[in-house]
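From the pipeline queue, job 12 of 40. The input is one protein chain; the requested action is below.

Action: predict structure.
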Amino acid sequence: MALFGKNKKKDEKVAEKTVEKKTPAKKTSLKKSVNKKPKQTATRRTTNKKSLQSGATSKRDLTWVLKAPRITEKGAILAESNNVYTFDVSPRATKFDVKDAVVSLYKVEPLKIAITRVPSKKVQVRGQRGRMGTKSGGKKAFIYLKKGDKIEFV
């Protein structure tokens, strides 16, 4: 037993010396603000009403945004009763892109735009028994207009 007590004392002395040696030296403080970039806040894009009234269009090319009007029974009912028009839009289009495209192409200001995803579906191929194909999905946009405004599909 006396053997263990001697070793403990020696180990404690060695540990105290190593702790004293390992004390960290003072670090020089570096400027942290050198590499920081200022935070960018998201700004909301709006169309200028004066440019809308004068007939001026947006400078960006927005022909890629609206693919085609989505002509369905439900779409026709919504257009007649609630003044809501549906369009197939590009999968990478945003609400702001759709709004700018409607303003530049149809010269009307939308009140609200709702975009939903259309999932792809499996469909049966006509004329070939048991053969299944896929119907591509995408995005569709519901465009809400004021009571007096209309979009004409010719």
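Job complete. The mean pLDDT is 79.
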